[in-house]
Model the fold of this input.
Amino acid sequence: MQGPANCERYPPLADYALIGDCRTAALVSRGGSIDWCCLPRFDSGSAFARLLDHDRGGYCSVSPASDGSWQATREYVDDTLVRATTFRGDEGEARLVDCFVIADVDDDRRILRVIEGRRGAVRFDVRVAPRFDYGEVRPWIQRHRERLHSAIGGNDGLIVFCEHELEEDREHELAGVVTIGAGERVRLSLRYCAPEEVDAQVAQVSDRAALDQELEQTVAWWRRWSQSIMLDSRDEAGARRSAMVLKALTYAPTGAIVAAPTTSLPEVVGGTRNWDYRYAWVRDSSFSSRAFAELGTEEEADAFRGFVMRSAAGHAEDLQVVYGVGGERRLHSTELSGLEGRVARGSFTPGLPQIPA
Done:
């Protein structure tokens, strides 16, 4: 077990920002590391889970490579769930933009990370270390052509495209150092793909112009949605931001609303039982649905109503406490062993991490 001395390995939970595409989500640290992401759905196994285990969990990090003093400031691009982290130091200034692409194709799950140079020349350490199935699977890394790799294991796969060349190291990670000057851009794309489809999909990887367009389309999509929120109050800005988080927690194909993007909350602090909140817990979801209705986003509220009616087969007496995001009724508990766990607010919680809903 780990104690408070381990806090440097596990950033405070407040350091993480949420990005998502209404199918799944990821958490990005202040230092530029994606430490949690399950693919292709909220309740799938993880591809990145350093939140659970710093060494084994897997991550995707884009951070300044020098040992100098760097100041990181973060914000969401106005009225979107696109996250921007600005790094300022003696060498210069650069911005990292992170989003889940809102794609036209329903089964396209893709994280886009864009480094933008603003001043000077900043060196970034880029590392992609997938660890599928909660850290159990070190992937098979394949190089398909210049700047294009795949990582596969079990029934999971990622197609990794980076404009700067990445090399595989002995730890089954892709790594490289990128130097970016003012006015320059470097793009990193992580696309989920079933292993048996990798060979066919690598031929369809987007070029830099297409990736820039996808970023612009994602920004525009979030802005269109956020502008539908109706709240004549001085709290409108905060309510709009909260509503975008709730929107990111919806599973668009069915209308389900997950209680949180991660596992899990302990039944009691220091106890052994943890609840997984990546599912549609009906009570929690009903509060979110009510909030949607009060904010004028009635489509999301009505979608959840339809999800509940279908999942309960139209009979209130058959309603369960919790469902899978696809309406699955039989949910099985699994205890993950061999994970370090994490420090949460100074006290150790065994098993899976303590994450606020």
